[in-house]
What does this fold into?
Amino acid sequence: MKKILAFIILLTLSILALAANELYYAGGSSDSGNERCAVIRQPSTRYLWDTVESEFQGAITDANCGIDLTEDSYTKGWYVGDAPASLPTGDYDIIIYDSNATLLDYNDTQLAAFLLSIFDSHTWYVAKDGSDSAGGHTRSSALLTIGQAVTNAVAGDTIIIYPGGYAENVVLTGKPGTILEGTSGYSSKIVPATGYGVTTETGCTLRNLSIEALEATANGRGIYIGNNETDIRVENCHIYGAYDGIAMSNTGVQRITTLNTTIIGQFDAVNISAARQVLFDNCIFLANGTYTDESSRSVIGGGTANFLNCTFRTVRAQNTNDEIGGLWVGLAGEWVLQNCSVYVSQTGTNISDVYGIKTSHSDARCAVDNCVFYVNNTGGGSTYDLYNSSGTLKITSSLYNTTAVSGTITQGGSGWAAAVNAEADTAFTDYAPATAAALADVNDVIVEKIKKYSN
It folds into this structure.
């Protein structure tokens, strides 16, 4: 048994704190192909911690380390469990062994490196069969709530969420760089009955999650991005808000990236506000518009935003005193749409305007390339595929009804005739592939996306 001076242990104190004061088994480390584990004890205080999972404990017996971890260690006079907030000074016994219970001999430099490798974990696990009093660093010691994992985490930590519904408001404030990641498709679900689903923090990532905010008020936002937050990523998620799917503050928000994600809002799917350097790639936006006397759009705001390979669908049957649309650039900013489809269907009455895209600020500039617009208005109000009431709207190589425009539209190789527009009606409402030559650019994949997410 190797005696290690206190300064070596003290070297690891900051890492112990990062690991929420628990030592745990470190999978992946190997010696001659075997997993390595360790038992650490301080004879003067009778503290004992082990980094081994339960399947290895039976191999650690009195014969090789003097402590039988398979028995009640309290009867042997040893304290086993979470490390204290600070380790007492003194000498420690550190026993390192492989999965075959073979003791391994390490010099001081090797030992220090090994301790760093097993203590420096920044991953927390959450599962429906977990416990908030557990260590949280392995699947077998998973925590029960995401909130507890966030409390335990420090900046840059990863929280792995196993399948199930978690009725929590997840607040990442004060934990920059945190990663929330589900394990299987959208089966890891954050589903609070009231309030925001996730409140983000600078540098955070949300991945492989379903986030559903169910409160039917302005608090019902799937994701809320607050003042001055930057460098946030949303990947492979399903986002729903009974009000907005994603809402961004109008102060200092920058560099927001959303990939391969479906975003649904009963009011607006996404409110970009004045955020800058926003990117949506291969995303689907759905605004179902269930609020009476409210507008409903797939995306609203200003700032600077790029939309690539996206589908926008706004469907409204309720009567309202306002407008219904696909995208509205209502604040100063620059938006670019490329390879996108925009579908708007309105059957209510007492509507002011129904449109595919609208610019309405003198400093609003929007460029559209290789996109498809279709607006189906069988209720009231004016109908526009393209609507420029103020600002600049430029469109190239796109399909839209040239008779359903308002304001100055800068065009290049775009538009379609009335007969072709009838084909668009078939393509978008009946989900049949378009046949007219002028609709050859309507990608079947886009049509299938609309079909898949229309119900």
The CA atoms of residues 167 and 287 lie 24 Å apart. The chain has two domains: 2-119, 137-453. DSSP finds eight helices and 34 strands in the chain.
